[in-house]
């Protein structure tokens, strides 16, 4: 029988059947300070230990400052959370990359760059953007705290089979259209709940043409369409990315691994429950106007009117979103003044994102009313960017250059926006209050964010292309 990539990985990890569900073996468990403390507590109460500390890796990312390496920089509550992670990792023999460590970074940036994620793996983390790792052809999904405890104790997880959605993007990508624009356009098309109950497999020549970092940006936001996970079949680019990374297989193990990885693709006649098709030529640089990532338009489109939506739920949500975002139907994005720009996060905090933003940043100065911060996703990204002198480009243009962490992606640290602030952000969620109470988030690509910083309002990156 012909099967999908999702089916293949799922089947290969079944340890036991429990009614209609399966008990899956988990190959990699990533943890951070926010969702692990209760899980560790649960173990202690039941007198258990972490079964496979060697398959588990921890980092500090959400609750840390990007201005200081001190773990108390964001106050006593954050310090306690970070110290608890350090204590729990030490007690269970889990490798931790704390603040200041060479390998520290946002969990979804640090994992892939160390080679911890391999095609065909099952990967979990108590974090919804775990889907990022699907870029390697791994079945990667976020789990809740009680599931974190279950994985700690057993290295397995009970799972039901999801539906499979194929999202095929074809054709040459227009100049100035990035991976972020592709995924925002996909979510715009299917809606923020459009892939609920599904694992998405992204395919088509446009997806194949993406670099590994771009694929991570696409898979990262699968959850923003409601999907359980996002997958891209591994190929030569995947193998080249992994070869030589610290935790990637070596020697004969490498050869055997690649031979297996080459089998990891959906059969040509595999059946998908849902198929969605997009032509890359129809995608423009995207900007979200609302309070969910599906409320998105091309940079040159007007803010939509609620009457444009035929579904009454979408219409109501547009009314609410326009009110929160302080926008009027028909307004042009280029007329919207932004006073904050955030470049970073697990969606767009990688070296290629830094390069794309710097490419625009070097063409001008941050507008005087804008505060713009650039936050590399990991210590490795920061070091690479500095080796390329991108930090100098940003500082010269008036951006701040910060330490790695989740930062302004969500209000869990000291990078918080105020009431009424309007931010062009390269993160993945524009929910009400996400970046601070009453703050307004517009999701964009790194190039679009840098362009907004210079212009002081949204601007079309295609006007900057080739201007150096
Ligand atoms: C704090 C964490 C549980 C959360 C998540 O699950 O995604 C965070 O990373 C987010 O992006 O909102
Ligand atoms: S960068 Fe943002 S989305 Fe990613 S893990 Fe951190 S808080 Fe979550």
From TrEMBL:
Residues 7-456 form the Aconitase/3-isopropylmalate dehydratase large subunit alpha/beta/alpha domain. This is 3-isopropylmalate dehydratase large subunit. The gene is leuC. Keywords: 4Fe-4S, Amino-acid biosynthesis, Branched-chain amino acid biosynthesis, Iron, Iron-sulfur, Leucine biosynthesis, Lyase, Metal-binding. GO terms for molecular function: 3-isopropylmalate dehydratase activity; 4 iron, 4 sulfur cluster binding; metal ion binding. Binds 1 [4Fe-4S] cluster per subunit. Pathway: Amino-acid biosynthesis; L-leucine biosynthesis; L-leucine from 3-methyl-2-oxobutanoate: step 2/4. Heterodimer of LeuC and LeuD. [4Fe-4S] cluster binds at residues 346, 406, 409. Its EC number is 4.2.1.33. Belongs to the aconitase/IPM isomerase family. LeuC type 1 subfamily. It catalyses: (2R,3S)-3-isopropylmalate = (2S)-2-isopropylmalate. It comes from Paraglaciecola mesophila.
